[in-house]
Design brief:
The structure is a single chain. The protein is mainly beta and 124 residues long. It has no helices and eleven strands. The protein is 0% helix and 51% strand. The strands form two sheets. Strands 2, 4, 5, 6, 9, 10 and 11 form a seven-stranded mixed β-sheet that branches. Strands 1-3-8-7 form a four-stranded antiparallel β-sheet, with no helix packed on it.
Length: 124
Amino acid sequence: QVQLVESGGKLVQAGGSLRLSCAASGRTFSTYTMGWFRQAPGKEREFVAAIRWSIGNTYYADSVKGRFTISRDNGKPTVYLQMNNVKPEDTAVYYCAANQGYVDPTNRYAYAYWGQGTQVTVSS
């Protein structure tokens, strides 16, 4: 089993920045895909960013390219989402997700493990 715990969500002003963390436990040394998704009230859960754990390839939704950066810490293991120049439309619950192997990084249904979510609210 894999457990994922997100942290770092908060209220932030538009144009500001914050960093989300996702700490994983219970995993092996197998190759993993880890991603961030977000869901606003009344909206579908949407892809934000993902990383191929062992090789470092990254993927981003068009809406966050140039503003968000996903990165990894192999020692924890932990994945981060650095969010810069945030916008009100970034407001959502952000979820960390993971699965073993090279799954489709943008597909929510490809992930077997999910965190509890952390709230990000961007004010004007």
